[in-house]
From TrEMBL:
InterPro entries: Uricase. NCBIfam families: urate_oxi. Catalyzes the oxidation of uric acid to 5-hydroxyisourate, which is further processed to form (S)-allantoin. Pathway: Purine metabolism; urate degradation; (S)-allantoin from urate: step 1/3. The keyword Cell wall biogenesis/degradation does not apply. Keywords: Oxidoreductase, Purine metabolism. One of its GO terms (molecular function) is urate oxidase activity. It comes from the Bacteria. Its EC number is 1.7.3.3. Gene3D superfamilies: Urate Oxidase (3.10.270.10). This is Uricase. It catalyses: urate + O2 + H2O = 5-hydroxyisourate + H2O2.
Length: 290
C-alpha cells in the first residue's frame, strides 16, 4: 500500500475589498468578498516542504487589491481578469478559481434627495460569481444568495402520502417564504454580465410571485424555467431553497380564533428544497460546477 497526495487547492479566501468610485461629489461603492483558489503542481510543498512553486496566498491577496486600482467593473469581468492572471502567473498553477460575493449598498435619501455619498446596506440578496480558468478557457458562474422572498397567499401543499408519522395538515392557502440561493452557469466567456444578471434576477422574482404554487419544488422549477427562457447565455441553474415555515398560532387557549392572520415564523428545522433546471442541449459543465 502506498499513501499518495489527493486533490488539493489553496488560496486566500474572503478578501474584503471596497472601492469608491468618484464622479465629482457623486460616489459609488463596490463592496466585495473575493476568494481565490489555485491548483496545479503542488506536490512538493506537501511532500518535501519546497515552496518554490507556491504563489503565496499573501501575494494573491495583494493582487486582488492591486487589480482593483484600475477599476472593478462587473464582478464576472473582475473575476475573469484575476483568474486569467493567476493561471499564467506561475507555470505550476494549472487552474485558478475566483469567487466573488457583491454586497449591495443603496443610496440614502438625504433631505428628500438621493445622497451623494451616503449609503445603507440593502437586504435584497447578494450577487455572486465564480470563474474557473485552466489557462485556455474559462467557465463563468453567476448567481444570487440570501434573496428572501415571501408570498402571503397563492401557495398550497396537499396530496402528499400519509403514514403513521404524518401530522402535517393539508393546506390550500399558506405563506410560502424562502431565501433563494441560485447558481447558474453561463455557456459563454463573454456577455453583457450586468444585463444577464439583472434579467435573471427580475425573471426569477417574477416567477416566484407569479406562480400559484402546489409546492416549493414546483416554484423552483418555474423559476428555473423562466430564467432559462429569458437569458439565452445561461445553460443551467441550480437552486437551494430553504422552506421558511410559517405556522398558524393556536390562539384558542386565549379564547381567540385565528382566521389565518397570526403566524409563528420558525427558523429551524426547515425543509430544504434543492434542484437543477437545464437545457437538454446544455454544453458540458466546467470544473467549477460540481
Ligand atoms: O413545498 C413544500 N414541499 C415539501 O416537500 C414539503 N414538506 C413539508 O412538510 N412541507 C412542504 N412544503
Amino acid at each position: 500500500m502506498a499513501i499518495v497526495l489527493g486533490d488539493n487547492r489553496y488560496g486566500k479566501a474572503e478578501n474584503r475589498l471596497v472601492r469608491v468610485d468618484r464622479d465629482g461629489d457623486e460616489h459609488r461603492i463596490t463592496d466585495l468578498t473575493v476568494s481565490v483558489s489555485l491548483s496545479g503542481d503542488m506536490s512538493d510543498t506537501h511532500l518535501t516542504g519546497a515552496n518554490d512553486k507556491v504563489l503565496a496566498t499573501d501575494t494573491q491577496k495583494n493582487t486582488v487589491f492591486a487589480f482593483a486600482r484600475d477599476g472593478i467593473g462587473e464582478i464576472e469581468d473582475f473575476a475573469l481578469r484575476l483568474a486569467r492572471h493567476f493561471v499564467s502567473a506561475q507555470g505550476s498553477i494549472h487552474a485558478a478559481r475566483v469567487g466573488i460575493v457583491a454586497h449591495p449598498w443603496e443610496r440614502l435619501q438625504v433631505g428628500g434627495r438621493p445622497a451623494h455619498h451616503s449609503f445603507a446596506r440593502s437586504g435584497a440578496g447578494t450577487r455572486t460569481t465564480r470563474v474557473t480558468c485552466d489557462g485556455e478557457r474559462a467557465w463563468v458562474l453567476g448567481g444570487v444568495e440570501d434573496l428572501t422572498v415571501l408570498n402571503s397567499t397563492g401557495s398550497e401543499f396537499w396530496g402528499f402520502p400519509r403514514d403513521e408519522y404524518t401530522t402535517l395538515v393539508e393546506v390550500k392557502d399558506r405563506i410560502l417564504a424562502t431565501a433563494v440561493s441560485a447558481t447558474w452557469r453561463y455557456s459563454v466567456e463573454e456577455a453583457d454580465w450586468a444585463n444577464a444578471h439583472e434579467t435573471a434576477l427580475a425573471t426569477l422574482l417574477d416567477a416566484f410571485g407569479g406562480t400559484h404554487s402546489q409546492s416549493l419544488q414546483q416554484t423552483l422549477y418555474a423559476m428555473g424555467q423562466a430564467v432559462l427562457e429569458a437569458v439565452p447565455e445561461i445553460a443551467e441553474i441550480r437552486f437551494a431553497l430553504p422552506n421558511k415555515h410559517h405556522f398558524l398560532v393556536d390562539l384558542e387557549p386565549f379564547g381567540l380564533d385565528n382566521p389565518g392572520e397570526v403566524f409563528y415564523a420558525a427558523d429551524r428545522p426547515y425543509g430544504l428544497i434543492e434542484g437543477t433546471v437545464l437545457r437538454d442541449d446544455a454544453p458540458p459543465a466546467g470544473p467549477a460546477w460540481s
